[in-house]
Amino acid sequence: MIRKIGILTSGGDAPGMNAAIRSVTRVALNNGIEVVGVRDGYSGLLEKKFEPLTRTSVSDSLSRGGTLLGSARLPEFKEESVQNECMDHMREAGIDALVVIGGDGSYRGAMAMTKKGINCIGLPGTIDNDIPGTDFTIGFDTALQTCVECVDKLRDTSSSHHRCSIVEVMGNHCGDLALYTAISCGAEMVITPETGYDEVEVLERLRYLGEAVHKNHAIVIISEKITDVDMLAKKVSQNTGFSGRATVLGHIQRGGSPTPTDRMLASRMGEKAVDLLIEGIGGQCVGIIDNQITSMPIDEALNRPRTSRKPLYRLFDRLV
Ligand code: ADP
Fold this sequence. Notes:
- By secondary structure, this protein is an alpha/beta fold.
- It is built from eleven helices and eleven strands.
- Strand 1, helix 1 and strand 2 form a beta-alpha-beta unit.
- The site of adenosine-5'-diphosphate has 18 residues, from helix 4.
């Protein structure tokens, strides 16, 4: 039987993390389980940054982006001696189970501690949608909304000036944010790790759109870490007949009030995490697959291929 659950947020922050913290806290308290908030990710375990969470500690948090517990990276947490110290601190504080909201790095930490004897459950929190074991992560929908709002605005100004807007979005080696933005905004091109990148082809395609299709503007959505978008914009201006302009959306994508979809997802996932811990299950991560809240062993999730987006790339091609 568990009496006290710890909760922490680790890795990059994402809108909706607060809704997950709130859900874990309220569901646990309503089951007679105490809750301890751990500040600043795994470094809070090392530095004993523990604070009891009550119903009111998580009031007014649903609409706030970021994470009220703070997040951090602690590379030393990969070392067994550091993990052992953290385990001792949790035992001293009476924490007998832990919910970790973060990405696959954070999941590995959760798995290590479960193996050492404290059940941990991982919840996927990132705007990048790059965590295995789930179709969607907490924060992705909010970031998508931000991207769509920005691109819609850029389209208004691009169409007045025979311009090609190249918009770089986040995703950390995952093209979902770019793909969903491109479909939602009716972009002319999408470039992601999944599509691959061939500069000559991109320039040819844009020249074709301008000259043969007589488009007076074009939007290209490109994932981060693919190419220098300012250089690409220069080449577009030199080679295609469009005036190329690059916009890097950057950290604006990480902020903002979470969408209802993210609040719902986080609330449902938080509930599932507590239910698993009550059942005595650890070492699992929660996901949403085909709109069902699911869970699977972290080891299995980390070895699974991500959900294929091939049908959506095909849809994009058919909509252009
Ligand atoms: P994310 O969780 O978003 O993938 P990181 O990869 O930066 O972000 O991981 C967040 C934290 O998780 C790291 O700072 C570290 O404390 C912990 N972590 C990452 N990888 C491991 C690992 N292999 N074993 C144990 N802990 C890890």
